[in-house]
């Protein structure tokens, strides 16, 4: 069956970023169609923990985007809070040695200058914040702005509220372009959709969508595992992670990195991350990786030794070589916008990204300078 | 009327005593928590985390985890798998099974 | 697989599961001269089919709850002989949570298990090859009231009876569909339970349509007829083309509503009747356990592990036999286990197996696979079973997710498959990891049942997971 649809904006990708783009574009008065070859939240969104973090970001454009996004999430929480399991729980970054603590405090100082609330926590105070942490830890930094949502629910509810027409099970096979090169819609396996603007929110597959439009965007997958425990009463109150995590997030290494990230959820289970490795789209279960996650988590929280892991899942975080997302219009293809490559921070950065895209679509001056996120910034590199 | 024990001509050794919360129950050697509770006329020993509804044996072979129970202070044991020993303390379980 | 030509070492096969398939495989492989470790979660060999009363109950007539007892005795004798000779090691109460394929340089497999009923200790067994005989479990589709205490799976009622010589009440209804219902009802009746009704949704006319395939197995048909005759002697009511509409009770089961099905598989209005009972044993067929195979990367065909004529999976060094490769009953499991054991042993010893050596088992396998395919087309839940799932019916028993929540996720939130339904509703995220609600969620979402990935075949304490792979191996 072939049908032709028309709208103002086609969003490709029904994950968190696509859903947020649909919401913000819709609220800016645009008529939006959202397409995805799978269901809502079927990709990276469905395989993440739902981090809305400022704590792991060093001063710079990504932190600015995270702070903007955090404010916008706070607004959305008024509207969707419970349905998306929004919790402004705060993060606690734990140092494992006095040297580590000194480095962490230096890092936090820089963040404070950029607008982050980062409160030093001495050894004693740490156990008031997290009574079940391993004894003898030197200290931590508390980040009250860190929050969490349940990512699949967030994507689904934002999408429903957006009023966008949702076409799941539609695979985009081409980006339609006018003779002058400008975008005029997308072709799907179930028909064409005509629109003067196409937003690439295809996450890990963002590079492939860009290629359909004839441009290069080097999005690569970075595999991450998450462990999920049996349901428990609330014993881990914040998002708690070891200070090493920040170094891992910023790392360029292809090798496996794991640093414990532990948090409770509204539903009861504790989530344990975070591993990062560059192995392409390999979906093979890796016992050594989840074993390292379990070892890290039980070191931070010894009570977890006897708590049972019920499942583990993996996802592919889409990243670009400089670890910044691609956000904004693509100067190479008029009408093509990118909103992808957020790596492990896509849930958190979705709101700011979508807000900036909506401002661009409606010819407003974006709240942040989009230069660092320019999608054509890799063009000079060899293919 | 024939009983299952008669059907298989079972000649178990003497029963022993365990506790279910505050009451004592007689148990035949070899029986699991679930079997002992069924034999004592008890069909539910857990209430669910969401609605607080009663649950007991469902699959009977350790797959469904509906029969979770606390045995000797270990929460979330599958009653259909765990055999009883004299003096064991079975506690009905609420919610996650973890107090606090 | 370890280099079979490596000098000195007798190759080591680990068989997982000591039911009919695993026992037949272990005996066959040991007879061919490989070292076998049989790893099983139960305290005694036999699996679900040959589950026997716990030794402490000292049953003198365990065969009263079984048929094909002589087959069991032969299997058990074979196992005992090889265990005594030191060719087979039988590890009981080992609950395997993961089989790990080790990388270079040593290759091979590590079988990770939890010990005892508490499952708080750990064991690891290294193997040159593994043979998965992990069996199956029962599928039960939801209906209002199915979470009430007193409602048990048909196989669960049977397991409690066979293993512990205990029943949950005095008056039972046995319901659902499939060849398990008759033996369950007959067993309960023999144990003194009044069978108020046996409710089977299949249409007797369907048996006639499949008469040729079914008649090819006269023994099996006679077995069914025998059960039916015994049940009728207990004055049980047989209601074919009927279904359970609802289970009633507040704190436990008090009655069920049974209704007739019309030609299209819908409940015939006005046909409902209430049957008082304190036990409902209900089941809608079986599903294979495929978690270990899936995590190893073995190809699945629908819900079952794919195997070739030698019972090899597509992962080198991994064989599978019995219900895990498709539901077909104990006789088929025995044949598949025998073939798998012979094939694995030959290949571990570096020789090409001779299919002629298992020709008889291969003929049995072909016949019984055809028979079970015919049974599959006869025994089916009502076509429109989802209509019985009201919006407030709990579908996911663990997380208490209702039919209404699942329908909302599909219709309004964009869920399109069981995985996204799970993400949006928590259906399948609880203790059983969707084993119970999987078929129902797929049905309500309008999809085929696809096995969800479960890297941990059982919940595993994080402390054990953190040290996995560090144990000393014998």
TrEMBL record, chain A:
Signal sequence extent: none
UniProt protein name: FAD-binding oxidoreductase
All copies of domain FAD dependent oxidoreductase, residue ranges: 9-359
Keyword annotations of the record: Membrane, Oxidoreductase, Transmembrane, Transmembrane helix
SUPFAM superfamilies: FAD-linked reductases, C-terminal domain, FAD/NAD(P)-binding domain
Listed GO CC annotations: cytoplasm
Keyword Metal-binding: no
PROSITE patterns: PROKAR_LIPOPROTEIN
Parts of the chain that traverse the membrane: 7-26
GO molecular function: oxidoreductase activity
Automatic annotation (TrEMBL), chain B:
Pfam families xrefs: Fer2_4
InterPro entries given in the database record: 2Fe-2S-bd_N, 2Fe-2S_ferredoxin-like_sf
Top-level taxon of the source organism: Bacteria
Gene Ontology MF annotations: iron-sulfur cluster binding; oxidoreductase activity
Keyword rRNA processing: no
UniProt keyword terms in alphabetical order: Oxidoreductase
Descriptive protein name: (2Fe-2S)-binding protein
Automatic annotation (TrEMBL), chain C:
Domain BFD-like [2Fe-2S]-binding: 394-443
SUPFAM superfamilies registered for this protein in UniProt: FAD/NAD(P)-binding domain
Annotated keywords: Oxidoreductase
Pfam families: Fer2_BFD, Pyr_redox_2
Keyword match Oxidoreductase: yes
A molecular function (GO) term: oxidoreductase activity
Superkingdom in the source lineage: Bacteria
The FAD/NAD(P)-binding domain, residue ranges: 12-325
PANTHER family registered for this protein in UniProt: ANAEROBIC GLYCEROL-3-PHOSPHATE DEHYDROGENASE SUBUNIT B (PTHR42949:SF3)
Protein's name according to its UniProt entry: FAD-dependent oxidoreductase
Species the sequence originates in: Streptomyces cyaneochromogenes
Lineage, uppermost ranks: Bacteria, Bacillati, Actinomycetota, Actinomycetes, Kitasatosporales
């Amino acid at each position: 069956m072939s049908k032709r649809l028309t709208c103002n904006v086609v969003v490709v990708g029904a994950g968190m970023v696509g859903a947020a783009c649909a919401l913000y574009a819709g609220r800016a008065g645009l008529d939006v169609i959202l397409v995805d070859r799978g269901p809502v939240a079927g990709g990276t969104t469905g395989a993440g923990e739902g981090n809305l973090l400022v704590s792991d970001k060093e001063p710079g454009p990504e932190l600015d985007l995270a702070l903007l996004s955090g404010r916008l999430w706070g607004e959305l929480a008024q509207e969707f809070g419970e349905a998306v399991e929004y919790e402004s729980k705060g993060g606690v970054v734990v140092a494992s040695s006095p040297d580590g603590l000194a480095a962490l405090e230096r890092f936090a100082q820089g963040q404070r200058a950029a607008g982050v609330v980062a409160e030093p926590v001495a050894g004693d105070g740490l156990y008031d914040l997290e009574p079940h942490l391993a004894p003898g830890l030197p200290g931590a930094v508390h980040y009250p702005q860190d929050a969490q949502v349940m990512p699949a629910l967030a994507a689904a509810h934002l999408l429903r509220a957006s009023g966008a027409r949702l076409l799941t099970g539609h695979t985009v096979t081409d980006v339609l372009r006018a003779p002058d090169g400008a975008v005029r819609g997308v072709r799907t396996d179930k028909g064409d959709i005509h629109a003067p603007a196409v937003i690439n929110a295809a996450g890990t597959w963002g590079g492939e969508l860009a290629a359909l439009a004839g441009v290069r965007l080097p999005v690569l997958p970075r595999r991450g595992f998450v462990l999920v425990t049996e349901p428990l009463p609330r014993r881990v109150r914040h998002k708690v992670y070891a200070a090493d995590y920040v170094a891992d997030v910023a790392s360029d290494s292809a090798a496996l990195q794991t640093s414990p990230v532990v948090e409770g959820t509204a539903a009861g289970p504790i989530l344990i991350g975070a591993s990062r490795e560059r192995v392409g789209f390999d979906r093979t279960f890796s016992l050594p990786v989840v074993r390292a996650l379990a070892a890290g988590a039980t070191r931070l929280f010894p009570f977890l030794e006897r708590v049972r892991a019920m499942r583990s899942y993996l996802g592919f975080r889409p990243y670009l070589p400089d670890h910044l997302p691609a956000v904004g219009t693509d100067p190479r293809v008029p009408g093509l916008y990118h909103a992808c490559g957020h790596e492990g921070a896509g849930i958190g950065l979705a709101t700011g990204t979508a807000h900036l895209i909506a401002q661009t679509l409606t010819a407003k001056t974006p709240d942040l300078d989009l230069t660092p996120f320019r999608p054509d910034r890799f063009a000079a590199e060899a293919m | 009327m024939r009983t299952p024990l008669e059907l298989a001509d079972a000649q178990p050794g003497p029963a022993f005593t365990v506790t279910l919360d505050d009451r004592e129950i007689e148990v035949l050697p070899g029986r699991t928590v679930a079997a002992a509770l069924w034999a004592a006329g008890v069909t539910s020993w857990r209430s669910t985390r969401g609605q607080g509804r009663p649950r007991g044996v469902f699959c009977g072979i350790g797959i469904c985890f509906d029969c979770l129970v606390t045995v000797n202070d270990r929460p979330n044991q599958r009653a259909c798998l765990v055999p009883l020993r004299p003096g064991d303390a079975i506690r009905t379980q609420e919610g996650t099974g973890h107090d606090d | 697989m370890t280099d079979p030509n490596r000098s000195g070492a007798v190759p080591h096969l680990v068989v997982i599961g000591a039911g009919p398939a695993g026992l037949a495989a272990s005996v066959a492989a040991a007879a061919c001269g490989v070292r076998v470790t049989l790893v099983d979660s139960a305290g005694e060999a036999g699996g679900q089919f040959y589950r026997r009363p716990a030794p402490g109950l000292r049953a003198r007539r365990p065969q009263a709850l079984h048929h094909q007892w002589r087959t069991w005795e032969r299997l058990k004798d074979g196992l005992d002989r090889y265990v005594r000779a030191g060719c087979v090691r039988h590890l009981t109460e080992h609950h395997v949570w993961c089989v790990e394929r080790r990388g270079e340089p040593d290759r091979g497999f590590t079988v990770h298990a939890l010990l005892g009923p508490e499952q708080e200790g750990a064991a690891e067994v290294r193997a040159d090859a593994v043979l998965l005989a992990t069996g199956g479990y029962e599928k039960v589709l939801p209906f209002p009231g199915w979470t009430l205490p007193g409602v048990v799976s048909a196989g669960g009622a049977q397991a409690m009876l066979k293993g512990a010589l205990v029943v949950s009440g005095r008056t039972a209804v046995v319901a659902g569909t499939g060849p398990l219902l008759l033996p369950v009802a007959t067993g309960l009746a023999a144990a003194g339970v009044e069978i108020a009704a046996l409710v089977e949704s299949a249409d007797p006319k369907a048996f006639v349509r499949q008469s040729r395939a079914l008649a090819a197995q006269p023994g099996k048909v006679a077995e069914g007829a025998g059960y039916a005759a015994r049940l009728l002697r207990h004055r049980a009511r047989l209601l074919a083309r009927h279904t359970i509409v609802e289970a009633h009770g507040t704190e436990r089961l008090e009655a069920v509503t049974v209704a007739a099905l019309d030609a299209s598989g819908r409940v015939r209005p006005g046909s409902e009747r209430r049957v008082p009972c304190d036990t409902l044993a209900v089941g809608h067929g079986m599903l294979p356990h495929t978690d270990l195979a899936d995590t190893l990367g073995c190809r699945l065909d629908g819900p079952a592990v794919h195997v070739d004529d030698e019972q090899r999976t597509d992962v080198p060094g991994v064989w599978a036999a019995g219900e895990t490769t498709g539901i077909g009953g104990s006789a088929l499991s025995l044949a598949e286990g025998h073939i798998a054991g012979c094939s694995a042993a030959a290949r571990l010893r570096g020789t090409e197996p001779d299919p002629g050596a298992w020709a008889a088992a291969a003929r049995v396998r072909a016949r019984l696979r055809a028979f079970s395919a015919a049974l599959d087309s006869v025994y089916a839940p009502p076509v429109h079973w989802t209509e019985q799932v009201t919006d407030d019916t709990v579908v996911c028993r663990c997380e208490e997710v209702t039919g209404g929540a699942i329908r909302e996720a599909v219709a309004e939130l964009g869920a399109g498959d069981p995985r996204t339904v799970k993400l949006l509703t928590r259906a399948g995220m609880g203790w059983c990891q969707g084993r119970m609600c999987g078929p129902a969620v797929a049905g309500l979402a309008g999809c085929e049942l696809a096995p969800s990935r479960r890297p941990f075949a059982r919940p595993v304490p994080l402390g054990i997971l953190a040290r996995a792979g560090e144990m000393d191996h014998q």
